[in-house]
Amino acid sequence: MDIHEPQGLHYSTAGEVRYLDHLDLYKIEKPYEVTFLPVNVTQPGARRSNLSLKSWPVEIRDFSAHQQSFNTDTQGFELDAFPTSLSVPELKDLSTVESRYHPEAITYLQQKYGAEKVFIFDTTIREAKKPRSDSGTLLKNQQILGPSTDCHVDQSPNSVRRRVQYLFPDEAEALLRYRVRVINVWRPLVWPYHTNPLAMCDWRSTIPQDYTPSDHKTPVWEGESLQVYHNPAHQWWFAKEMKEDDVLLVKIYDSEAEKPDGGIAMCTPHCSFDWRDLSKAQQPRQSMEIRALVFS
User: Fold this and answer.
1) Keyword Methyltransferase on this protein (predicted)?
2) Within-domain flag for 10
């Protein structure tokens, strides 16, 4: 039996994932994307991105009935229950999320990972066919966006370390001695089915050559993400059915995985996909997610 496939899986679907092209350009120019309008955009040759993406057909398998076989240490992602006191309208209000949901999420992550400290640094609400957010919300690290369609990892290891040093200049040296994880807590706002679900790639099916650093510039942060090249060995999964209290935990980084004998998932390539088997009458995707630094 394939180590990536628990016994009894009964549903899979054909999908497409957009990967970074293998261009000679990236041998001399680093991939990049600017998420706000550059001041010189009217000048000849000004570009917001040099990303060239190509769609590849993939099989995407359901793991929601076998969630006990998946975890963030092994595959890099898992399905878990995280009840919240907030209603769906409240979960779509960024100020309410910050004041009430963030404390709940911090407690949840502390208990889940035995964490000494949890810090939430980003909140994103996604709606199908939603246009890109304006710079005003980006300046607050509060975003209302459409589903992300390219295969990526939100943060590179270097970007995570820089973020810790930026956020905690007086504590960074001590905090970086902890096990440092970045976890995306992804929550659907419609269920059990919706368009554009989140697909996740089993970290064990990737190799280091699949990843390349990419500059990701916003008004508040010059970050570095990881773009991903196509590899036919990639194993893709999604949660076909999610209940009201369900969340997906998607690992973005784990310092433990950088140890030579760690054997721990480093990160999870992910993106949304067009679920073609889904009835056109199903609800459009709505979701909210937080990204958190978890020190344990």
Assistant:
1) yes
2) no
Rounded Cα distance, 41 and 68, in Å: 49
**Rounded distance between C-alpha atoms, residue 240 and residue 248, angstroms:** 12
- The arithmetic mean of pLDDT across residues 213-218, rounded, is 90
Q: What is the pLDDT of residues 33-65, one digit of tens each?
A: 987 655 445 555 667 899 999 999 999 999 998
pLDDT value of position 146? 64
Pairwise pLDDT comparison (281 vs 118), residue with the higher score: 118
pLDDT at residue 147, rounded to an integer: 79
Taking the C-alpha atoms of residue 264 and residue 205, their distance in angstroms, rounded to an integer, is 13
Q: Are strands 142-145 and 117-127 parallel, antiparallel or unpaired?
A: parallel
pTM score:
0.90
- How far is 43 from 168, CA to CA, in rounded Å? 38
Burial group, residue 195, by CB count within 10 angstroms (0-12, 13-18, 19+): buried
In angstroms, the CA 213 to CA 18 distance is: 16
Number of domains composing the chain: 1
CB-based contacts of 103, cutoff 8 Å, min separation 6: none
**Pair type for strands 246-254 and 270-272:** unpaired
Q: How far is CA 81 from CA 46, 68, 229, 292, in A?
A: 45, 12, 32, 17
The answer to whether residue 221 sits within a structural domain is: yes
The answer to whether residue 99 sits within a structural domain is yes
For the chain, the distance separating the N- and C-terminal CA atoms, rounded to the nearest angstrom, is 34
What range does the domain containing 197 cover? 60-295
132, 35 in Cβ contact below 8 A? yes
Would you state the pLDDT for residue 141? 43
Per DSSP, the residues of 176-194 read: TTS-EEEEEEEEESS-S--
